[in-house]
Amino acid sequence: MAGNAATDAYLGTTARWKGQGAIFCCAFLWSTSGLFIKLIDWHPVVIAGARSLIAALFLLTIRLVFPPRAGSEKNRIGPLCIGAVVYAFTMISFVTANKLTSSANAIVLQYSAPVWAALLGWLLVKEKPHWEHWGALVLVMGGMALFFRDGLSTGHLLGDCIAILSGIFFGAHSVVLRMMKNANPRDSMLLAHVLNAAISVPFIIIYTPQLTVQTVSPIIYMGLIQIGFASVLFAYGIKRVSAVQAMLTAMIEPVLNPVWVLVVTGEKPSVSALLGGGIIIIAVAASSVIGKRRELKLPAGRR
């Protein structure tokens, strides 16, 4: 019996390490998006649509090769479509923000999403925010004020606003996924990429992109690897680690994202952006840890 318990503990620890590694690799891949968006001289909606087209083909292939078990996951059409629309606008607004403001501003402001998720969860599914959510909101607002101060002086104000909108959409998407009980979130993501590709069609006609190796190669990379393969890694990892562990590990994305852009393009975040970004990341991480500790203290039936 003792041997079996030790084996189970070892296997559990190994699974958590594998899950943590998968989330780390996923966040690492996610962090490269800002750089490649900056390097592609296309309209942002065209970039988002072309990237999503490739990602949709990749995820569809994965679904056909590894279909969900019959009856294990059920999707309701309404929440499925709503989730897809919200996630599609998350991606479009994020790419647009990257074109209009610094990569650091875009990614950090989007990472305010957990706070918006707490507020939207209160409004939509009656999940009342706790004190740490309100505290995080105050700190996030303070961090955003520093971004707006910087935006007014550098002409990034519109991009910063769109980045915040992307964070709100991202937070709303997590709430919609929570409403889809016993559902397959991959189907919502797949539909979102299809919708993104469809939305980009008129923009492709109006803002016809130039197809060169320098533009097509990054699009293929982002579709297949940065979004497609990263989604597979995230799906693998999230089943083996807690949500708060996944979120904290994913915090390497807003840290590395501006680093790649700085190294390749020389784009430097301002002091105000660095300070505001640090406040937002700390606020989101702290509220997530506190919330998870409270959840672990609750009886199993109330979690």
Explain this structure.
It is a single chain. The chain is an all-alpha fold and 303 residues long. Helix content is 82%, strand content 0%. The chain has 13 helices and no strands. It has helices at 2-30, 33-39, 44-65, 77-100, 103-110, 113-125, 131-154, 157-179, 185-206, 213-238, 243-250, 252-265, 271-297. Helix 1 (2-30) packs parallel to helix 11 and helix 3 packs across helix 10 (213-238). The longest helix has 29 residues, at 2-30. The model is unreliable at 1-11 (pLDDT under 50).
Q: Mind summarizing the main beta sheet? A: none
What fraction of the residues are assigned to beta strands by DSSP?
under 5%
- The tally of helices reads 13
| Contiguous uncertain segments of 5+ residues | 1-11
Order of helices and strands: HHHHHHHHHHHHH
Judged by helices, strands and strand pairing, the structural class is mainly alpha
Global mean pLDDT: 80
Helix percent band:
over 70%
**Shape descriptor:** globular
Give a topology summary.
Blueprint: H1 2-30, H2 33-39, H3 44-65, H4 77-100, H5 103-110, H6 113-125, H7 131-154, H8 157-179, H9 185-206, H10 213-238, H11 243-250, H12 252-265, H13 271-297
Q: What descriptors fit this protein?
A:
303 residues, mainly alpha, globular
